[in-house]
Design goal:
The protein has 112 residues and is mostly helical. The chain is built from 5 helices and no strands. The longest helix has 17 residues. The chain starts with a helix and ends in a 7-residue tail after the last helix.
């Protein structure tokens, strides 16, 4: 099993444990591949839920640029909802899981 496949399995387990749903493995794989080599970088592979600058980056680079959503308060609300569900005490919020959950939230799987 490749390193990427191992990470995808870990992300799927996180989705099951933290969000109580089974991951769409095809979509999760596409989201993970879309993140490129950042998934192997300890810092870049995580999202800091308490860092407003980080959340703005998720909003601008992923929701607006990648998913093509219009800017508005609903974007930050969705990010905060996902981060809260992931668990504020959980320091390991994987970027791939956060992006996957946001993609599902906005019904944008067709982008991939």
């Amino acid at each position: 099993m490749s390193k990427r496949d191992e990470l995808i399995e870990k992300y799927a387990a996180d989705i099951k444990d933290k969000f109580g749903e089974s991951a769409d493995m095809d979509l999760l794989t596409k989201v993970t591949i879309g993140l490129g080599p950042s998934i192997y970088n300890l810092d870049a592979s995580k999202v800091s839920g308490g860092d407003e600058k980080e959340l703005e980056t998720v909003k601008n680079n992923y929701l607006i640029k990648k998913l093509g959503l219009s800017d508005g308060p609903q974007l930050m609300e969705a990010i905060k909802t996902v981060v809260d569900k992931y668990g504020s005490s959980n320091k390991n919020k994987h970027r791939a899981v956060v992006y996957y959950m946001l993609c599902k939230h906005f019904n944008k799987a067709s982008i991939y």
